[in-house]
Amino acid sequence: MKRLLATVGFCLLAQVAHAAPSINIGTVYDYLDGDKSTYLKRVFNGGDSTAFVKVNILEILYNADGTSQEVPLKTHADGNSRDGLMASPARLIVPANGMQGTRLLFMGERDKERYFRVRFVPVVPEKEDEFALSGEEREDYKKELSAGVTVLAGYGAVFFVRPKDARFDSAIEHDAGTYRIRNNGNTVVVIDEFRDCSIKNEQDCQPTTKHHILAGRTFTFEKQAGRQYHFTLVEGEKSKKLDVKG
Q1: Of 17, 24, 20, which is closest to residue 48 (Cα–Cα)?
Q2: Which positions ≥6 away from 64 have C-beta within 8 Å?
Q3: Which of 30, 94, 122, 125 is 20 to 30 A from 181 via CA?
Q4: Mind listing the pLDDT tens digit of every residue in the chain (246 residues)?
Q5: 227: which strand partners?
Q6: What does the DSSP 8-state code read for residue 129?
Q7: What is the pTM of this model?
Q8: 139-177 b/e with 16+ CB inside 10 Å = b?
Q9: Pair type for strands 82-88 and 155-161
């Protein structure tokens, strides 16, 4: 009887799980080099229903204490364009098991590095969403989704816009107990695949992490006896693997 109930439950779950989009934006950190002004971001839909995706952009402002806030983009004095990052198109129709791209275009001064949150939000299209659908097509899509329990999950990426004259200058300092990397350049440096493992047991490791060192900031970790630290220091297109023992 239990087996029968489990089978019935599985069948019901399979029925309510159909007709749902499932988007994937690839990397969640993207970087626009100083000599480029556009970046192609691809959105994949691994679901079995069309995904209607809005692209929303906010600027990230970092405070001196390391905290941050996300604010709407400002408009240029001429009133015709925004100062910062724009997405073209800002509305994507991604077919099931298909892909569409949006071009991220930066408009503004490049004298310093700037940061943006780019959100890809699947929606049920409404008239005001400007997806170029007829009323009948919108209603058909809603009926398709309402046939099951559908969760429309969105994703956010952090977009780094490097200054026009990007300069890398990472200073490494370490003593018996502390390891420091200070970013004396004017653009972000990445600590990629940071691993903290036991020297005697390679299986004894902390979760792998990724860190961004903004210009003028310092990345620090405490060295512990019997532990070793592996990571890759990434400065734009150049990278260097480093190993540190406690």
Answers
A1: 20
A2: none
A3: 30
A4: 444 334 434 333 334 445 688 999 999 999 999 999 999 999 999 998 899 999 999 999 998 888 999 999 987 666 666 789 999 999 999 999 999 999 999 998 899 999 999 999 988 877 666 576 676 776 776 766 655 545 577 899 999 999 999 999 999 999 989 999 999 999 999 999 999 999 999 899 999 999 999 999 999 999 999 999 999 999 999 999 999 998
A5: 198
A6: G
A7: 0.84
A8: eebeeebeeeebebeebebbbbbbbeebebebeeeeeee
A9: unpaired
Secondary structure of 148-210 in HEC code, one letter for each residue = CCCCCCCEEEEEEECCCCCCCCEEEEECCCEEEEEECCCCCEEEEEEEEEECCCCCCECCCEE
CA 5 distance to own-chain centroid = 41
The b-or-e profile of 122-132 (16+ CB within 10 A means b, else e) is beebeeeeebe
Query: Are 93 and 101 a contacting pair, CB within 8 Å?
Result: no
Pairing between strand 114-123 and 51-62?
antiparallel
Provide the token pair at 73: 């983009």
And the tokens for 124? 């049920």
End-to-end CA distance of the chain: 58
Q: Name the one residue in this structure whose structure tokens are 């604010």.
A: 71
